[in-house]
Amino acid sequence: MKVALVHDWLVTHRGGERVLDALCEVLPDADIYTLVHKPGSQSPAIESRRIFTSFLQRIPGIHARYRHFLPLMPRAIEALRLQDRYDLVLSSSHCVAKGLRTPAGTPHLSYVHAPMRYMWDLFDDYFGPGRASPPVRAAAHAVRPWLQRWDRETAAGVDRFVANSHHIAAKVRRFWGRDATVIHPPVALERFANVPLEGGGRGGYFLWLGAFAPYKRLDVALEAFRELGVPLWVVGTGQEASRLMSGPVPPHIRFLGNVSDDALPGLYRDARALIFTPEEDFGITPLEAQATGRPVIAYGRGGALETVTSRTGLFFSEQTPAALAAAVRQFEVWEPSFRPEDARSQAERFSRVAFQRAILSEADALLRLGRHSTARTAGV
């Protein structure tokens, strides 16, 4: 089976790219099509492929400024042409990847991390007051109706959708009017599950980990822990770093920046709990934390409701510092009842192998449906 994998951009290596890496492992001859590729930014499984990019790749400094070209991305993905004949197109999409134009008769299976969140329900998180400059906000409001229309119309070019969570499947139905099967994304749990369960949480700190993107709501955690006076360690960086790190930082809050993959399991294990503030499409970090035997304090919406249980964590109902602070205080009472083995058992439900088997089954079902349709058309 000759497959074309389509991904929005290859600039950083985060959750979406880990999904692509898992797809590359089970589709060893697949080519990759993407808007922009920063060489060396991806895993060997991705970097070793034939990678075709759009006209955006030729813009000087694009790897640092690709987000600024959002209005051009629909045109760029539509102009990206397949360089071979393929049995299947499999897109991994959170922005425009699903909009790649496929030849007639070539089935298109789209794995959806999210509909274009910054143009739909999370628009204000990215472009609301205080989130962007007035010119950027004005431009975003101007292009939003057109991008929403394009996003909805290009959904018709996909034969079958798979969503990474029930939360996202509901958005696919709401924004695009399409149904989607649910396959949770793969989590590389092996290196986290190798740490011993005994002795976890002894670091005495709570841990926040992720990209400093607007919707991640690190600001909620920082304000809550300033009030609590309890140690919070923050791992990551990103577009909001200058805003979030400006001004005096209290000594009980530590910014660690990006840390190595080797250091992450130990950071999780020594934390009392992971603090998870976004309304995430799925969210891999809660599962990584649980794999090391640690609980999660999560905002009770989105993918966290599918990965964290009442035995492995607590939820707060409002995305505010006060609600999070209340949950941390409740955690002090709840913590003695927590069992690390429950957390690890929950995480093991989301393995890489389970994802790969499920996505190949979806691809096979779509290909068999296509062959059946062709046979009927030919009068067989």
Structure, described:
With 380 residues, the chain is an alpha/beta fold. The chain has 2 domains: 3-186 and 351-377, Glycogen Phosphorylase B (Rossmann fold), CATH 3.40.50; 190-347, Rossmann fold. Helices cover 39% and strands 14% of the residues. The protein contains 16 helices and 13 strands. The chain has helices at residues 15-26, 44-47, 62-65, 73-79, 123-127, 134-154, 166-176, 190-193, 218-228, 241-244, 264-270, 285-291, 304-307, 321-334, 340-347, 352-377; strands spanning 3-7, 31-34, 51-53, 88-93, 108-112, 160-163, 180-182, 206-209, 232-235, 253-257, 274-276, 296-299, 313-316. Strands 3-2-1-4-5-6-7 form a 7-stranded parallel beta sheet, with helices on both faces. The chain has a 3-stranded parallel beta sheet with strand order 8-9-10, with helices on one face. Helix 9 crosses helix 14 (321-334) and helix 12 packs across helix 15 (340-347). The model is unreliable at 372-380 (pLDDT under 50).
Task: Tell me the layout of helices and strands.
Blueprint: E1 3-7, H1 15-26, E2 31-34, H2 44-47, E3 51-53, H3 62-65, H4 73-79, E4 88-93, E5 108-112, H5 123-127, H6 134-154, E6 160-163, H7 166-176, E7 180-182, H8 190-193, E8 206-209, H9 218-228, E9 232-235, H10 241-244, E10 253-257, H11 264-270, E11 274-276, H12 285-291, E12 296-299, H13 304-307, E13 313-316, H14 321-334, H15 340-347, H16 352-377
Parallel strand pairs: 1-2, 1-4, 2-3, 4-5, 5-6, 6-7, 8-9, 9-10, 11-12, 12-13
Helix pairs in contact: 9-14, 12-15
Protein name: Glycosyltransferase family 4 protein
Domain Glycosyltransferase subfamily 4-like N-terminal: 15-191
GO molecular function, one term: glycosyltransferase activity
